[in-house]
Amino acid sequence: MDNSIKYNRKIVLFSSSVVMTCVLLIVVWVILYKNYGFSKKTQKFISKVEKLNGEIVHMDEVLTMSARMAVASGNVMWEKRYLDFEPKLEKSITEAIQLMPDEYKKLGASQTDAANIKLVEMERKAFGLVRRGEANAAHAILYSAEYKDQKQIYKDGIDKFVNLLNGQVETKTKRIEKRLYISLAFIFGVVVFLIICWLIVLRTINKWDKEIKILHEKELHSEKLASIGKLSATFAHEFNSPLQGVLYVLEMTVEKCANNKREEIDKEFVKMAVKECDRMAGLVRHLKDFHRPSTNVATLMDIHEVIEDVILLMNKRLQDRGVALKRKFEAGFPLINAVEDQIKQVMFNLIQNAEEAIPDEGGKITIITKRSDSNIKVSIKDTGGGIPDDKLPLIFEPFFTTKGAVKGTGLGLSVCHGIIKMHGGDISVDSNLGKGATFSFVLPVNS
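Request: output the structure for the sequence above.
Response:
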């Protein structure tokens, strides 16, 4: 599975996890909102029941006391007080009945209502007697057995209804507690589930990241091997020249030794042989450094030395194709903190691409280095055919190439893009069709 597929799969997994988390959080929010609404509604019911209970008990006692005080004192002020509280009591009872009308009817509402009507009738009659000065007759009514019986029937009916309301309050309170416990258990389960899921997701993503890193390193190394394949013919020629020189020097030495002229052996021949051997050793050393897998260890390095090492590997090929190489290096360049072999890979790929873009009649490659604030910029400009505008957005995509299947794998620029991004830099291309292209990358300077 290539990097892009694993990367896309990682995005899908992460996105799905976020969506699932959002959905579950929305469900939790809906449950909390409904519980809050139910709790608020129940609390309102409880508060109203408690208020009505208190009002009914209080005002019923006020009415009874007002009637009896009017009989005892003969003061009509008590009748006025009675008349003030009577509609209030009726209103409170009506509101209480509206809370549970069916239950009220089942409790024998008709007997309670009849007793209430009879009591009001007897109390109003007593007030009339008081106004006419017949206090004893009024006293007889309010303290009669009939009044007490009706009072008891009314009181029992109201008490039963009040108890029913209190029972409803208790039921609703238990229901709130039950819903609260269920909601808390569900929320706890959701939280535990999300924690487990996210641990699995993060672990999976971390595993995929490691696999992507390994694949990237393999791509980088395979691109190096492909580049070495392209250099093999050049190196064969490069090694042949110094070997011929060493062979000539040794043949001359052998000839002089055969003529007994050892004292005349010119040391310059030996020095020449040593120089040619050093040249071959340098080529082999640079080739081995380039072939070796990346260390991924960043060190302080001179970008100009890196460029020169890469030029040494490619110089013969550039000369054979008639490509002139021009350097425009800014003086006093700072060291940068980077993985040296990876930056060499970037330079090799960009110079190689520039060389391959130049036609057979030859051309020119210009390497430019500049410093800007806390960054360095390296540009590789060629005089090739350039890149069509519609191809530019795809130029750093994996497996995209303008060279054809024989010349390119489509990984070179993608690898360069990944390396520069991992170093905290940026890479870009500017092309003028028919006149050439310029690839530039920017890297931060290590302070």
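Residues 405-410 have pLDDT under 50 and may be disordered.
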